[in-house]
Automatic annotation (TrEMBL):
<feature type="domain" description="Plastocyanin-like">
    <location>
        <begin position="21"/>
        <end position="133"/>
    </location>
</feature>
<dbReference type="InterPro" id="IPR034288">
    <property type="entry name" value="CuRO_1_LCC"/>
</dbReference>
<dbReference type="InterPro" id="IPR001117">
    <property type="entry name" value="Cu-oxidase_2nd"/>
</dbReference>
<dbReference type="Pfam" id="PF07732">
    <property type="entry name" value="Cu-oxidase_3"/>
</dbReference>
<dbReference type="Pfam" id="PF00394">
    <property type="entry name" value="Cu-oxidase"/>
</dbReference>
<feature type="domain" description="Plastocyanin-like">
    <location>
        <begin position="162"/>
        <end position="229"/>
    </location>
</feature>
<dbReference type="GO" id="GO:0005507">
    <property type="term" value="F:copper ion binding"/>
</dbReference>
<comment type="similarity">
    <text>Belongs to the multicopper oxidase family.</text>
</comment>
<protein>
    <recommendedName>
        <fullName>Laccase</fullName>
    </recommendedName>
</protein>
<dbReference type="InterPro" id="IPR008972">
    <property type="entry name" value="Cupredoxin"/>
</dbReference>
<dbReference type="InterPro" id="IPR011707">
    <property type="entry name" value="Cu-oxidase-like_N"/>
</dbReference>
<dbReference type="InterPro" id="IPR045087">
    <property type="entry name" value="Cu-oxidase_fam"/>
</dbReference>
<dbReference type="GO" id="GO:0016491">
    <property type="term" value="F:oxidoreductase activity"/>
</dbReference>
Length: 323
């Protein structure tokens, strides 16, 4: 499969990638299982471009469920349609269909990553994005002798999570090994693609010099180990400008979700649902970005600063209402 080609128009580099999302078999720890991945690879293909380039990624969904791809850490100012979070900037790419992302790089330089955005698909549908200095420029540190990417993810065995190390059965053939030459400098780019684990990373009897973080350089820090936290899917920012203009109470809880029609036969089936102030997310029929641009009413401006459908509890029976 030709995964990548690129061209240059008036000095602007354009890269074209083909991502085929489908189930394929992988063997680790004495077990073969099928996982949803891109181009039959785990981790998926690495995207390697330069600062300011434009990347076209045609995603063909040959799996069984709808999903999207999010370009984590790429800002894409004024290009929200290619950001990827499902139901926010687009509806999921349905099985048997495709969607082409136009990912426009701006100030990012360093290492970021891409991942699927639908339930837990992110666990296996992910890969690194390496953004090299713009053509004609260099790293803000001496040129390393070699440059490589390590994507750290989890390998799930049933309900248990297992990380293949030397002590696991059948781990030998799949344990990562790297030969290095004495005196050379290696630039190692590490992506934490775990769903729920922060990672400590160290190289025994070596110091590390951290030179970048989340697609930007930093003032170099010498350390013996680093901690890489998760891709936080929820981030709450508060910016104190001058005075407090409103006070909010926010309660998060686990609720029982009752059925819409109390007389139906499966009404006994309760589902657990998380909520904020007794409001739960329900996937909308139109993505939020499109609702905003097309001015579709009924979807926006419900919760302060948030778009949502409401679920409110009424007489022992939670139901969906549109405010
Ligand atoms: Cu992300």
């Amino acid at each position: 499969m030709v995964e990548l080609f690129f061209c240059s128009v008036q000095g602007e580099m354009k890269y074209f990638y083909d991502f085929v999302v489908r189930e394929s078999n992988f063997t680790k720890l004495c077990e073969t299982k099928s996982m949803l991945v891109v181009n039959d690879r785990f981790p998926g293909p690495e995207i390697r471009v330069h600062r300011g380039d434009k990347i076209f990624v045609n995603v063909q969904n040959q799996g069984s469920y709808g999903l999207t791809i999010h370009w984590h850490g790429i800002m894409q100012p004024r290009n929200p349609w290619s950001d990827g979070p499902e139901y926010i900037t687009q509806c999921p790419i349905q099985p048997g269909t495709n969607f082409t992302y136009e990912v426009i790089l701006s100030k990012e330089e360093g290492t970021v990553w891409w991942h699927a955005h639908s339930d837990w698909t992110r666990a296996s549908v992910h890969g690194a994005i390496v953004i090299l200095p713009a053509v004609g420029t260099t790293f803000p540190f001496p040129e390393p002798d070699e440059d490589e990417v390590i994507v750290i993810a989890s390998w799930y065995k049933g309900d248990l999570q297992a990380r293949p190390g030397d002590l696991c059965p059948c781990s030998k053939e799949t344990t990562y090994r790297r030969k290095v030459d004495y005196g050379k400098t290696y630039l190692v780019r590490i992506v934490n693609a775990n769903i729920d684990a922060d990672i400590f990373f160290a190289i025994a009897q070596h110091n590390l010099t951290v030179v970048g973080l989340d697609g930007a350089y930093i003032k170099p820090i010498d350390t013996t180990y680093i901690v890489i936290t998760l891709d936080k899917r929820w981030m709450f920012c508060s910016k104190q400008i001058s005075e407090i203009t409103s006070r909010m109470f926010i309660t998060t809880s686990m609720n029982s979700l009752y059925c819409e029609d109390p007389s139906s036969s499966d009404c006994e089936t309760k589902q657990i649902a998380a909520s904020v102030n007794n409001i739960s997310w329900v996937n909308p029929s139109t993505d939020i970005l499109q609702s905003y641009y097309r001015n579709i009413s009924g979807l926006l401006n419900r919760f302060p600063g948030l778009s949502a459908f409401f679920i409110t509890s009424q007489r022992n029976h939670t139901r969906l209402i549109e405010h």
